[in-house]
Design a protein that fits this description.
Blueprint (H helix, E strand, L loop, with lengths): L5 H4 L12 H13 L5 E5 L6 H13 L4 E3 L4 E3 L8 H7 L6 E5 L6 H10 L10 E6 L6 H12 L5 E7 L7 H4 L3 E4 L5 H14 L3 E2 L1 H11 L3 H15 L2 E2 L1 H7 L5 H13 L2 H13 L4 H20 L14 H9 L3 H21 L2 H13 L7 H18 L30 H11 L26 H10 L3 H7 L4 E4 L4 E6 L1 H4 L4 H15 L4 E6 L5 H12 L4 H10 L1 H9 L9
Parallel strand pairs: 1-6, 1-7, 4-5, 5-6, 8-9, 11-12
Antiparallel strand pairs: 2-3, 10-11
Length: about 575
């Protein structure tokens, strides 16, 4: 007898042997026991998850006459095939004339479906049901699907259709709506490991749990892939499997070098990382496999960094958990997420452009310069501070003029926008301490000063107009007073020339806010009058044009914002750029 590979030798022959698809097998067994067997089934899901296997078991179960289980006192009916009768043996060995398997990938034309439509009319040769198993059903042509529609909807009572596919989206809705739909899912790692443990026990193979976990990780949830990989390893290495021999056989990097590389990334040791990568290349390691291992390793670290209760989802061997938890405590979830993102982009670039060593070296350089993330709340606070900073600066640079001789003494420091104006007593005391008192000067006589100390002179309003505007609400700064020109008319009257479009919507409350702000700035009551901008004398308009020319251009403000150290961090984090400044 010819040799059977493990995937064929250990193929499930009963519903109870199927691994990880209990939601499918339970429903099918209930249908068989109740006699509510459908006329068409659609099995879909990833490769190697048991679609064709379950189709064959279903074909045996509906045709087996000996579906009975003997008990101590009686025999009860069951949904499992006996696998001993002639019908079960013929179906298992692919000798039955009544169970026809078709490969739609090579028989996808309309002629094949026409022949099928003629054959379904014939009664079964020996079995109760004639079963058609159409594998890779999504490969059928549109014409073939159309020819199958009527037969699939109302086949003869002795016919059952079972279609299997890995591409459910490619099955027309007109076909899937006529079938009972069953989804097959990726197997959990624990299920695959349990099945592999049974296989190695029966095949007398020595392999510890770490080896089986490594095989399972490479199978990506497909039991058939795991069995085929185990078959390959036994043929290559023998029946004594270790982590080192398995890694060398399937092209994985050695555990020691992989540990060095992950440590170099964690510690931001670029030289060590590049040296380790070069050693991996000398060993002939598949760098794509190495990248997959790195992504899996940092994925495990991220799970543990989030919470230790997620340790059940970790794919690394259980013996490595204590060490992984220690590593996870030293890294933030944000940094681990960015590491995984960079490695995944590198894997994509290697598949698209090649140059695996160069791509990995570039990734290591990026990972070495990767800083810890800034909390979102801190970013928002910094952006808010920047906004306030720009608002206080105004739309243009503030042009400060020379102080008025009566505003302050040469020895007394000038007040900035952020300084709190000193009280009258404080200013007088400062003046007395710093300035020698002439014999003829009486410091108690207030008529020596035209304005109160600590306040601006209304006559110099153009010099501190931007300061006044910065203290007003945003809606006034960028609305009514945008481009407005103030003119002092008399001792306490200020005419403000505004855009005519804003004059009609300005309220008395807005006028009061501007008047109160000016009053606080000059230290005496001020009355304002709003006039249309086109009534401003030519001389004032010319002065306004000169002032406008000194303002910063949008490009200058954009460059200044991009170079701001606080905003620069946020721009780099979000890979953003400054579009417009106001």
């Amino acid at each position: 007898m010819s040799y059977e590979v493990l995937a064929q030798k250990w193929r499930p022959q009963n519903f109870s042997d199927v691994v990880g698809q209990e939601h499918v097998t339970t429903t099918l067994k209930n249908q068989i026991l109740s006699g509510r067997i459908g006329h068409a089934y659609l099995f879909w899901g990833p490769r190697g998850t048991g679609k064709t296997t379950v189709a064959r078991i279903l074909a045996k179960a509906v045709n087996c006459p000996n579906r009975f289980q003997e008990t101590e006192f009686d025999s009860i009916k069951t949904a499992e095939p006996c696998n001993q009768c002639e019908f079960c043996n013929d179906i298992s060995q692919d000798r039955s004339f009544d169970v026809i398997e078709m490969d739609a990938a090579s028989n996808r034309g309309i002629d094949t479906i026409r022949d099928l439509r003629e054959n379904v009319k014939l009664s079964p040769a020996t079995c109760t049901y004639k079963i058609y198993i159409i594998d890779e059903a999504h490969m059928l042509s549109p014409e073939a699907f159309n020819a199958l529609l009527k037969t699939l909807e109302e086949p003869p009572s002795h016919v059952i259709f079972i279609m299997a596919t890995t591409e459910h989206a490619k099955i027309p809705k007109t076909i899937s709506s006529r079938c009972q739909d069953f989804d097959f899912r990726h197997l959990e790692d624990e299920k695959i490991i349990e099945r592999l443990q049974l296989l190695i026990k029966e095949e007398d193979v020595s392999a510890d749990l770490d080896v089986l976990a490594l095989i399972t990780r490479q199978s990506e949830g497909c039991l058939r892939d795991a069995e085929n990989l185990l078959e390959r390893l036994i043929s290559s290495v023998g029946k004594d499997l270790t982590v080192e021999t398995v890694g060398q056989t399937i092209g994985l990097s050695s555990s020691s070098l992989l540990a060095e590389l992950t440590a170099a990334i964690t510690e931001r040791d670029l030289a060590k990382g590049l040296k380790t990568l070069n050693n991996l290349m000398k060993q002939g390691t598949d760098l794509s496999q190495c990248l997959d291992q790195l992504i899996g390793h940092f994925r495990d670290l991220r799970l543990l960094a989030i919470d230790n209760v997620l340790s059940e989802q970790v794919q690394s061997p259980r013996s490595d958990l204590p060490k992984l938890k220690q590593e996870a405590e030293r890294m933030s979830v944000g940094r681990l997420s960015r590491i995984i993102k960079i490695l995944m982009h590198t894997s994509r670039d290697i598949k698209q452009y090649g140059y695996p060593q160069l791509q990995l070296e570039t990734a290591l350089i990026q990972l070495n310069s990767l800083e810890e993330g800034i909390p979102l709340e801190e970013i928002l606070n910094k952006l808010s501070a920047l906004e306030q900073k720009f608002d206080s600066a105004g739309p243009s640079a503030t042009v400060q003029s020379a102080p008025h001789p009566q505003e302050t003494s040469p020895q007394m420091p000038l007040l900035t926008n952020q300084d709190t104006p000193p009280s009258k007593e404080t200013a007088r005391t400062h003046y007395e301490e710093q300035t020698p008192t002439p014999p003829s000067l009486d410091l108690n006589t207030s008529t020596s000063f035209s304005v109160s100390p600590g306040h601006q002179d209304l006559a110099n309003l153009p010099s501190f107009w931007d300061t006044v505007k910065s203290k007003l609400p945003v809606k006034l700064r960028h609305g009514l007073l945008e481009g407005a020109v103030p003119t002092v008319n008399g001792t306490n009257i200020v005419e403000i020339a505004c855009s005519p479009s804003y004059l009609s919507i300005t309220t008395d409350e807005d006028r009061k806010i501007v008047a109160d702000t000016l009053t606080q700035e000059v230290g005496k009551p001020v009355k304002i009058e709003l006039v249309a901008l086109d009534t401003v004398p030519q001389q004032v308009a010319a002065e306004d044009e000169t002032k406008e020319a000194t303002r910063k251009t949008p490009l200058m403000r954009k460059i200044e914002a991009q170079d701001d150290p606080q905003l620069k961090t946020a721009l780099e984090l979000f890979e953003a750029t400054v579009v417009e400044t106001q």
